[in-house]
Amino acid sequence: MSTQIRTYLVTGGAGFIGSNYIGYMFEKYGDAIRIINLDVLTYAGNLGNLKDVEHNKNYIFKKVDICDRDAVGAIFAEYDIDRVVHFAAESHVDRSIKDPEIFVRTNVLGTFVMLNCAKQAWENADGSFKADKRFLHVSTDEVYGSLEEEGTYFYEHTPYDPHSPYSASKAGSDMMVKAYMDTYRFPANITNCSNNYGPFQFPEKLIPLMINNALQGKKLPVYGDGKNVRDWLYVGDHVKAIDMVQEKGRLFETYNIGGHNEKENIEIIQIILETLRDMLPDSDVRKAHLKDELITYVEDRKGHDRRYAIAPDKIKAEVGWEPEIMFKEGIRKTIQWFFEHEDWMANVTSGDYQKYYTEMYEK
Ligand code: NAD
Ligand code: TYD
Questions:
Q1: What is the pLDDT of residues 239-263, one digit of tens each?
Q2: 219 is in which domain, residue-wise?
Q3: How many domains does the chain have?
Q4: Active-site residue among 65, 142, 174, 262?
Q5: pLDDT score, position 304
Q6: What backbone phi and psi angles, to 5 degrees, belong to 194?
Q7: Best mutation site among 11, 64, 68, 91 for ligand 1, i.e. most ligand atoms within 8 A of its Cβ?
Q8: The domain that contains 43 carries what CATH number?
């Protein structure tokens, strides 16, 4: 029997989507894979997201900055990496408006370092690449800009038109991946996904922020007129799509990922309030907080993109991926998860989780 196991290098695996991906992959493949999680643990990285896998003998954590070419190169030298799944990024638009420089560093330079280290490790003397090596770059639909009219969608051929420093830096990283594919025939794919929601999402993003605030009776801040549209996908459907693209996608291709679930922000907030009212028992004191009056219109985000909507036709046709969790079910699962993980939310919002790393790895 073959003892060969496939080795994944996952960057940003302590973040929201990366930690969901690692959990999904071990559940699906068990001992047939080994995962090295490379994460520098910024405010968004939380090893508490990985408690279910941290004792798995095939899971390895490396506290490394993707911009550190020596440290990344050392990991490629130490392990025979078969797959790179590159999530690590600065990911929050509001932060990018306040402090764009770190977005350029992490998202553009960091992606370049990852590409270059993988290329050096995987390239043969004649410029071809070792068999069965693949790099998947996880990107966003925000690189395509903003759609004004209903019925229009982002396709893989839609020209890039990013507006925020976040989306511009992700566009820059996508372009570098494309350059490596076009110039060196570097074995990669890019996926551009719509807005995710689900367990372990940091409460600075719309959905977890609204759930957390509503439960505490805090104001629900709606930017502008609340009519900006996002196309929401349950994180479990995203991580499944990423795995399917690595297994079945054609190399060098881009795949858009989305579930045709477009909703105005105000609609999302109303659904959250209604679902919380429905799910909380009458005996729960928090139920009294859940008033529509919590909804508070605030100053709009600078350069706020109006509408995102993905056409997922290509990934459906070529890879056979379909979203499985519809929004009504996904939002209930997400709220249930937050009910069951109040300690997670308390740690994340107090910054206590930073201590977790010291406890686990430095003592
Ligand atoms: P996140 O902010 O929750 O997690 C990012 C992770 O990257 C954190 O664990 C952080 O510690 C790590 N990281 C940041 N800088 C690093 C560095 N220099 N070196 C090593 N690790 C570093 O982000 P997320 O929401 O999980 O998004 C993951 C990826 O998916 C990003 O590339 C993002 O652009 C993309 N994406 C996100 C969404 C979404 O809705 N959240 C949608 C589409 C695409
Ligand atoms: P966000 O979750 O930050 O994702 P992105 O900006 O990457 O799409 O925001 C989703 C939408 O919700 C976006 O249109 C901005 C809006 N929003 C609010 O109205 N209030 C808030 O407090 C936040 C965080 C976002």
A1: 999 999 999 999 999 999 999 999 9
A2: 6-362
A3: 1
A4: 142
A5: 98
A6: -80, -175
A7: 91
A8: 3.40.50.720
